[in-house]
Amino acid sequence: MANNINFGKIYDSTWWGVGVTSNNINWGKSYLDLAGGGGFDADYQAVLDYATAQGYTLPSSGQQTLQNQLVVDLKDGGIWSKLDTFAVFATDGDSDFALIDWKRLTDYTAVNSPAFTSNQGFQGNATSSYINTNFNLDVNKVNYALNSASIGVYDLNNQSGNFIFGAAESVTIRTSGNWNSTTNKFTRINDGSSGFPSTNITNNGFVMVNRTSSSNLQIYDNGILHQQSTITSNDTPNQNLFLMAFNNEGSAILHSNSKLSIAFVGSDLSAEVSSINTAFNTYISVL
Amino acid sequence: MIVLHPNTKQYNALNGYKHKSSELLFVKGGSDRWIVGLQVLNDPNFAGINNQLEQLERIEYTPIEIIE
Question: Who has the most CB within 10 Å: A143, A169, A188, A204?
Fold first, then answer.
């Protein structure tokens, strides 16, 4: 039987009552068609519920639909379950809503007033402001691992300079992102290397650093492999990941003026990088 | 670039101030002095300490050197 009616979220099992043993109807997965009509994905609804409980200003109804679709796209691409922390700073909700960690339902911290622009995100001032994800890459990791790890950001202001993200436990245990600099090319995952990538990434947009093994590190520019390396891993840094600065064993240094719209940490996502890029651009392009 | 610099008493009074998802944490500039950017003066989450922030010394920012 064809179902041409938008019934809302149809669950996998339905109790039809005594005496009915089968409905013989394939209703399909119809909740994806519910634009703006409620029935959001449970994980996105949980974000809205968390924000409401905290007293944050929610995004507009139209943007809620877009954000729900972003979560659905990430799930359909097999990405969502591989993330440990995920934040969407580009929103027309308030700056507190923008700091919600959608995976952990906690908050990032805006330290020293990074500038918040509606529908764009947070921008550092290159001197003192940054975002503390409150995600410790060693203590809080679930999917992020020594030899299967990724960190991605959507940066609207990829200017030559200092760190887009970073956390260091010691000089040999570092995870950081700085891919557009003449002297500070310190892009790493769980290692202590310098000089990667050897050629700058100068585009704005989605950049992902990824580790697929103990000796295979990659950096992707807008979904395309930019460079890879055999830099070997050492350990996962026992520090919180900072955005728009480098967490140098507990102290924020080398701040940048990146303007970040999205950030995440997860496991190896090299196979999914194109899908992530598409999902992020689909969301960002309509804001 | 002008930034704000606290004396010891101001540092102890203000460092670590939190309101909602915002926090004030002075950082070390290249001159090895604690500083924070002027943006904190316009942050509504720091309205409760705005008068104290306005009292901080304004100094020229010295960039920090590369760490390696």
Answer: A188
